[in-house]
Amino acid sequence: MEPISVDIKRGYDPVYFSTNIEKIAKILTNHLAQSIEGSEKVLVQKEIEEVARELNFSEVIKNGDADIQQLVKVILANSNRLHHPLYMGHQVAVPMVGAAFADLINGATNNSMPVYEMGPAASAIERKVVEWALSQLNWEKTGAGVMTHGGSMANLTCMLAARAHALPLAWKQGVSANVVIMVPQSSHYSLSRAAAIMGLGTDSVAAVPVDEFFRIRTKELAETYNGLVASGKKVIAVVANSCATATGMFDDLQTIGKFCKEKDIWFHVDGAHGAPALITKKYRHLLDGCEFADSVTWDTHKMMATSSLCGMALFRTKSSMLKTFSQDATYIFNQFDKPGEDISVNTLECTKSMMSLKLFFNLAVVGERGLAKHVETLFDNAKIFSDQISRRPGFSVLCAPDANIICFRFGENCALQDSIRQRLVKEGDFYITRATIHGKSYLRLSIMNVFTNEKHIDALCDRVIELSGNC
Ligand SMILES: Cc1ncc(COP(=O)(O)O)c(C=O)c1O
Question: At residue 413, does pLDDT exceed 70?
Fold first, then answer.
């Protein structure tokens, strides 16, 4: 055998690791402090080749032994600063430091946990944090769940569970053309993707009409269902939003849940964004009726301040989770005695990252009360800001927000909203998004950052007014 080369050794050298990690920690600490202070632009976007040039990409990958700290500095200088108080963009968490500790451990140890023995601690922690989430739904006695790489994956998992429930032979024999799922017109695109992936086709997604704020019109639920049944369709699931991605408004789970119970249809709550309201006293009522659900999607990399990805697919009954997948793969799955469960028996993914650690460390740093207060603060602040914006002359908000998402307009012209958002993003001083709601363009804020305050919102409104004269 040849001796291990110096280049390979560097890749595993604990001293090299510790020297760099200490310096990277300092660079990151400054970056975070600067971002929270808001002294730099939120967003700097350059062309791909320019970023590659700054990284000295071709040289670096050819030769290795690069100046890692320099690379980190370039990456940070070209990254979106989510900790900046003027970050009000997509529903992606401003990560707490606990999640960063978890990512470091995952990166260093890669206990990827398809089976218990590949990641005993991460698997045990997954089981415990999932039990904790189930207890927020009062499902701890009957239920079960798994962590998934995000809400899209959790939605797909729950739709597969719905299919297994309604059509137990579908895993082996596939499905016939008459199968449909009912989702709000305003649902996240991952649900129609799930239908396409499951071989149902996007035509099998029956849109349930929504109101002006993107909430299911519960009065039209029965009509939609009856129409589908009359045309020979078999409805295998009804989905409700907690909350709608574009507007942040919650569906009436009580009414929808009762309807599903009456008709004996699988009821899925897509709480990718809004399920964390359950951990608060003040806002958990927004999910009243969720006890009727068969499954719930819940992301922690939105309002629970973990880095991406960290989602959960939760089931009211353990048996429905166990029926979702069925696989014979003796190289990995077996019945030998072991101290914990093999998680990937119940997940789409085989290899998974140690995502349970992100939620666990956030809880370990700020505690349940701290995390609940975090969610409450985002919701509370969005209400204050929405009110503030609506009081500014020329501005209007779509509605008083249920959650932490605000849709607003300056004036009435749709093209104006879009060009204002384009200019804001190009300048990079503010980062906000847009949405089309019933054909009208809106500027859209997700209040993800507890450091955003009224002064920041005033500054945003001032800039919107200035830009409206130049767009
Ligand atoms: C309601 C809803 N469902 C699902 C998703 C998809 O989640 P992920 O981005 O984690 O895949 C989102 C993302 O914003 C969402 O808002």
Answer: yes
Per-residue pLDDT tens over the stretch 233-247: 999 999 999 999 999
Instruction: Report which ligand 1 atom has the smallest distance to the Cα of 153.
Output: 11
Give kind and range of the element (H or E) at residue 312: strand 311-315
Q: What is the pLDDT of residue 142?
A: 97
The DSSP code for 390 is: H
State the pLDDT at residue 341: 86
* pLDDT single digits (tens) 251-299: 999 999 999 999 999 999 999 999 999 999 999 999 999 999 999 999 9
Decide if pLDDT at 446 tops 70.
yes
> pTM of the predicted model, to two decimals?
0.96
Say if ligand 1 is within 6 A of residue 311 CB: yes
CATH number of this structure's domain 104-361 = 3.40.640.10
Q: Furthest-apart CA pair in the chain: how many Å?
A: 77
DSSP-assigned letters across all residues of 172-219 = HH---TTEEEEEETT--HHHHHHHHHTTS-GGGEEEEPB-TTS-B-GG
Evaluate: CB of 271 within 6 angstroms of ligand 1.
no
Query: Quick check: CB of 299 below 6 Å from ligand 1?
Result: yes
CA distances from 64 to 11, 54, 56, 421, 450 (A): 10, 16, 11, 40, 40
Q: Residue 176 C-alpha to ligand 1 middle, in angstroms? A: 28
What's the token pair of residue 82? 């989510």
* Ligand 1 pocket residue status of 150, Cβ below 6 Å: yes
* Predicted local distance difference test score (pLDDT) of residue 471: 64
- Give the residues across from 407 on adjacent strands: 444
Ligand 1 atom at minimal distance to the Cα of residue 311: 10
Assigned CATH for 367-468: 3.90.1150.10
